[in-house]
Amino acid sequence: MADNDQAVQTASSRSGLLDRFFEITHRGSSIKQEIRGGIVAFVAMAYIVVLNPLILGGSQDIAGNSLDFAQLTAVTGLVAGVITILFGVIARLPFGLAAGLGMNSFLAVSVVQEVTWADAMGLVVINGVIIVVLGATGIRTAIFNAVPHALKIAITVGIGLFIAFIGFVNAGFVTRTPAGPPVQLGQDGSIGSLPTLVFVFALVLIGILVARRIPGGILIGIIVATIAAIIIQAFAKLGTVGDPVNPDPLGWNLSAPEFPKQVVAMPDFGLIGAFDLVGGFQHIGVLAATMLVFTLVFTNFFDAMGSMTGLARGAGLQTEDGMFPRIRGAFIVEGLGAVFGGGASASSNTVFVDSAAGIAEGARTGLAACITGVLFLLSMFFSPLIAVIPMEAGAAALVVVGAMMVTQIREIDMTDFRTSLPVFLTMVTMPLTYSIANGIGVGFISWALIHAMSSRARQVHWLLWVVSAGFVLYFVRGPISAILGA
């Protein structure tokens, strides 16, 4: 009996230590709730373990070299796991970090057409160092403070619309049209594929569970939808939309939900350290390489700032002035995500808006982030099993979370057009251009100009003018790069 009592006391002591360190009770959460939220965040983000290697491994650099898929899978899980755990311990916020989709696409489509992969990852490392310096010196926090409260809320709402749109696109609910309008419903204006029906089923199920306040509703919905998808695939034998050999336009978006032939795969870390800090400057010149770094910094800086703003607000952690706990530490660790990501050739790792699914499930502290990070580390060994979860199931969770975030628009006073127009532009630009940074930039510039031209120039913080000028350069970087190249 004494041994049992001692074991109970030890467990209670450890539980109390976790509670105090992460402020779990203080934030109205529980260890069970944090674990559940961390798992849901990982499930919502897990597709990056498969998608990041597909994006980065699908492009050859200027020298004709490409990155190995298996090695990319390993470093994607490794960096996401390490940086998310570090973020959870230092920032103690329930945000998951992983390879940013905007950044990896930019590297694969644009940057490696001018430099090698090693050079490109070297530029990502430099970008990360700059981000860390801006965070450590307080410059990033100062810029954050200069953003008007209405724009901070608009960023949250815009991110809600953005991640909902991501969910619609990933599920095939919204697709491109060969001609005419930019987007359409499903295929040829109707929902005609089984994977999209799985998304609709998951969306309705998660919506009902959340509306009825069922604990674990999002996770339950994803699991049930995955089981349904496996059953459907067993009979329908569908392919995938992006299959390079036999694409199936009515198939699954990323991978077919089938039980894999193997569950465990040993990771290959051969890409760690495969970067060159000076190669890009040597190959395309100092000015052109500097312009690439400028683009990376702006994208990294404001995507992350916008994501953290929206997630912190969704978790109820923002104060009245829009701040959130340990903001400087959060900015520094997020910058380290770019350094680690570039150093391992996994691309820049940044705060993922998809982790809002974990927040919606109740995550409020860094313990949830640690759980997500541990699962990312395990994903290095169980990547075949993770591929079983169809993107359509996770996409439904994103739409539900997006709906939750959009409700915060009620806190914005839209009666003053000086406020309503920049707010509106911020919200709609994010989903329509598929970029958080673009929405923030358009919002900043329009806010500054409209207030200045309507006798309210004194209400615009000088830092907002500086950042707006930077965004002007960011938006015209194409012509500037062309001039520098000439």
For the structure shown, list the relevant keywords.
2 domains, mainly alpha, two-stranded antiparallel sheet, 486 residues
Describe it for me?
The chain has 21 helices and four strands. α2 packs across α15 (366-379), α8 packs antiparallel against α19 (436-452) and α10 (217-236) runs antiparallel to α17. The chain is mainly α and 486 residues long. Strands 1-4 form a two-stranded antiparallel ribbon. The protein has a two-stranded antiparallel ribbon with strand order 2-3. The radius of gyration is 22 Å and the shape is globular. It has helices spanning 2-22, 31-45, 47-57, 69-90, 101-109, 117-136, 139-146, 149-170, 194-211, 217-236, 279-284, 286-314, 327-343, 356-360, 366-379, 383-386, 391-406, 417-433, 436-452, 462-475, 477-485; strands at 97-99, 174-176, 183-185, 349-351. The relative contact order is 0.20. The protein has two domains: 20-266 and 280-412, no CATH class; 413-480, no CATH class. β2 and β3 (183-185) form a beta hairpin. The longest helix has 29 residues, at 286-314.
Write down the secondary-structure element order: HHHHEHHHHEEHHHHHEHHHHHHHH
Distance between the termini: 82 Å
Q: What class would the helix/strand composition place it in?
A: mainly alpha
Q: What is the domain total for the residues?
A: 2
Mean pLDDT: 85
* Approximate shape: globular
Determine the strand fraction and express it as a percent band.
Answer: under 5%
C-alpha-based Rg, rounded: 22 Å
- Count of helical segments? 21
Which percent range fits the helix content? 55-70%
Major β-sheet, in short? 2 strands, antiparallel
GO molecular function, one term: purine nucleobase transmembrane transporter activity
GO cellular component, one term: plasma membrane
InterPro entries: Azg-like, NCS2
Keywords: Membrane, Transmembrane, Transmembrane helix, Transport
